[in-house]
């Protein structure tokens, strides 16, 4: 099969298209024909050598949608439409930048009886499951609450906005550029704030009591300011590191963490583990909502398989404003 392989760290040119063998599935694995996959920052970090040394060739990619080729246990039938995310892809096993991928069955979700195109289905797994995990499991969002999405123009930020609106929340989203304001309103944001790094006072003008929950996608550089937007007993979940390394210097528990507020980090690596089975996720519901146009699509652009390098360049330029998808 054809797959993109990283043999040494570097820029997009480090992605080399190779012919490699497809891994035969074991009793707890499933082999999938990849029809499309979404692109993620984690893949650029791997390619650049920011996720450890590359001592053996690595196939990047942490999500895919496609059809079952073979399930040795017979749980999933050949030809069944499925999605997969994480489960060690690109780390402990080959990732999804390939014509075929072999994954843990626990990291596979059935997409049976869904009319959505492969292109649109590929926008869902990683972005929406990360947003769902942080919002539902870490923050326990409820209808009628107010949510701050800091870093709203990222693909996971857009997913969080559309998902939270579908769940009945009021959403305040941020962007560093005024040019992106309309995009966030189109996704469903109720208020948009241009982020200069110090927005807590502006958020308090919008909602004087503070927000119920905040999704921090920028990361450590804006975390203190984000915490100051919370109401008493509000919570913030960090899911992104767009602003740099995950280190908060001299964090003072009493001065920087207001009374009763909660802070956590949600890693998408939890998806598909016993703590967070993919079968419990709302992916099929999300696909139905998207197909019914009850939710806007976060798709930004689609690429052919031979355009992956170009797609990486666009992703790293911060001009994607949505999910980038590769079709096979």
UniProtKB/TrEMBL annotation:
Gene Ontology molecular-function annotations: NADPH binding; oxidoreductase activity, acting on NAD(P)H
Coiled-coil regions, chain positions: none
InterPro entries with a match to the protein in the record: ADH-like_C, ADH-like_N, ER, GroES-like_sf, NAD(P)-bd_dom_sf
Enoyl reductase (ER) domain residues: 10-326
Pfam families listed in its UniProt record: ADH_N, ADH_zinc_N
SUPFAM superfamilies xref list: GroES-like, NAD(P)-binding Rossmann-fold domains
UniProt keyword annotations, A-Z: NADP, Oxidoreductase
Protein name, as recorded: Alcohol dehydrogenase
Organism whose genome encodes this protein: Pseudomonas tructae
Lineage: Bacteria, Pseudomonadati, Pseudomonadota, Gammaproteobacteria, Pseudomonadales
């Amino acid at each position: 099969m054809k797959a993109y392989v990283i043999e040494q760290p570097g820029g997009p040119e480090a992605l080399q298209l190779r012919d490699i063998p497809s891994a035969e599935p074991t009793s707890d694995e499933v082999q999938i024909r990849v029809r499309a996959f979404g692109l993620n920052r984690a893949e650029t970090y791997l390619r650049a050598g920011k996720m450890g040394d590359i001592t053996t060739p690595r196939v990047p990619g942490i999500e895919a949608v496609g059809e079952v080729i073979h399930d040795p246990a017979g749980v999933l039938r050949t030809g069944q439409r499925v999605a997969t995310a994480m489960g060690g892809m690109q780390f402990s096993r080959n990732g999804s930048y390939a014509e075929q991928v072999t994954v843990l069955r626990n990291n596979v979700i059935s997409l049976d009886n869904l009319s959505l195109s492969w292109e649109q289905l590929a926008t869902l797994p990683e972005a929406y499951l990360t947003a769902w995990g942080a919002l539902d499991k870490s923050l326990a969002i409820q209808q009628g609450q107010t949510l701050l999405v800091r870093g709203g123009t990222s693909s996971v930020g857009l997913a969080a906005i559309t998902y939270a609106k579908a769940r009945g929340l009021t959403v305040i989203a941020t962007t560093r550029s005024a040019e992106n304001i309309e995009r966030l309103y189109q996704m469903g944001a109720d208020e948009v704030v241009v982020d200069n790094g110090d927005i807590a006072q502006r958020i308090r003008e919008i909602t004087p009591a503070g927000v119920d929950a905040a999704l921090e996608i920028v990361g450590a550089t804006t975390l203190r300011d984000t915490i100051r937007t919370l109401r008493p007993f509000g919570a913030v979940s960090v899911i992104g590191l767009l602003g740099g390394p995950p280190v908060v210097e001299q964090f003072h528990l009493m001065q920087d963490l207001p009374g009763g507020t909660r802070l956590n980090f949600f890693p998408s690596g939890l998806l598909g583990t016993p703590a967070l089975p993919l079968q419990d996720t709302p992916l099929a519901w999300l696909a139905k909502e998207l197909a019914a146009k009850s939710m806007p699509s976060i798709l930004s652009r689609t690429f052919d398989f031979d355009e992956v390098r170009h797609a990486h360049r666009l992703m790293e330029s911060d001009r994607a404003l949505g999910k980038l998808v590769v079709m096979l």
